[in-house]
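Here is one chain, start to finish.
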Amino acid sequence: MTDLRTQVFRIWFRLSRWTTLGARAVVENDRGEILLVRQTYSKGLLFPGGGVEHGETMMTALSRELEEEGGVRLTAPAQLFSIYSNHKIMRNDHVALYRVAASDWIPFGDPIGYEISELVWCDPRAPHADATPGTQRRLREIYADAPIADHW
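Its structure:
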């Protein structure tokens, strides 16, 4: 069950925007692991990322969110993997998923705090058991050659 803060935020978001767009990234390290984060306001582990704000490009939003949520600063542009519809939580929501190679980022700050409670590096072919279903499906698409879905 979601908390009241999350429910109020979702209602405000739906009323203030007709269509929403998010950017998330599969960040790889030099050991072949990927970064997952645990947000304080939702369940499970997921890729770092978030919403594209008014006036932002996708890459600007992704860069900002990776610094805020993952402690990752891009040193090269991320590569777009796919764009998904994500209508389960909010109608007209879309998520762009990027890949960030180990050579294309550097550590940046400590994201643990208000929004992020945990960072987890794990094997993308055997992700942490608490990875969300959508996260697990995306990992199968990228690392196990599963067909790419239209919906998150």
